[in-house]
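Incident review: delayed structure delivery

Summary: a single-chain prediction request sat in the queue longer than the usual turnaround. Root cause was a stuck worker, restarted by the on-call engineer. No data loss occurred. The affected request and its eventual output are reproduced below so the record is complete for anyone auditing the incident later.

Affected input:
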Amino acid sequence: MDRCRRFLLLLMLAVAQPATADERARAEAELEAVRERIEALQAELRQEGQRRSRAEKQLREIETAEQEARRRLQELQRQSQAAARRQAELRGQEQAQQAELQAQRAALAGQLRMAYINGDAEWLRVVLSQQQPALLGRRMTYYGYLSRQRQAAIEQLRGVLAQIATTQQQIQEQMQRLAQLQAAAADQLEDIANTRADRARVVARIRADMATRDQEIAALKSQETELGQLVAALAKRLPAMPDVDAEPFAGQAASLEWPVNGPLLKSFGQARADGSLRWNGVLLGAPAGSEVRAVYHGRVVFSDWLAGMGLLTIVEHDGGYMSLYGHNQDLLKEVGEWVAPGEAIAHVGDSGGQANAGLYFEIRKDGQPVDPRNWVK
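Output delivered after worker restart:
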């Protein structure tokens, strides 16, 4: 079993047979090695970030806090949906129990009508009659059966009533839980709205601080350099990429899907900042909250906030290739996780101080940007 399959076995449960203790230990050690190296790199980046302006630090804090608020909101929404489904199941269960109750009541009513018609002393008249002993025995057995049947019907009726009471209590509990979850979700929405307002003020301050075009260009160059250094450091420090049980990335030219559906707003190589810089990737327009999908098999090697990129995910592929996804609203994958083509890894946002929602997407080979348009259909 190769290293990639051991990772998938541990992290994604992709293999049906259970891993041995040695395989699990090796997979955990490999994953821990990846995380330790990336955590050390992120610590260095945070140390370097101390030189950033106060507004940039605030932007990082705010956008990271917004991501956490959105994650909590998504979890609350998931729990609310589960509670609503459970409530619907209980209501269906109650309807079935009510139908059974009506049937039990009808059966018991029929038995009581028969007993009324025969009279309470019918059994005594049978005993005092001059019938043959054998016939008398059969009649007494029959009346005993009816009596036991009535008693059983009454017990069944009581049981159904108890079930209905329990179900109604559970429905009430689910209603209360759903109300609590909805209230908590409303609080999270308010928190998100507050962070958005704070973010708008910080972004306006950052733009105001860049009083001249030269300052804006200098900031863009600094961010571009930082991203390049990050990619180079990742390639240098990470353990060797395991062999992926798939076709090599290099053979995927003109066959990949775009990570989001939307118009191409900025193209690779297009001039930016009055021609002083070029776009190293593409900017794709998409509504905020849209799913960002991995373009190919790989492992997540970066999942954090970076100046200029905002909330950024970097996926390492084989052969020295990496794909980068920036300006996300939130990140769905942690460092070390494996992803498959088309798997959701983030949601479109405007982090990094962007004016509008969109996805920044790059493909790099040995640290150098390449035109993503050569890789998609």
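Verification: The mean pLDDT is 80.
Action items: add queue-age alerting; document worker restart procedure.
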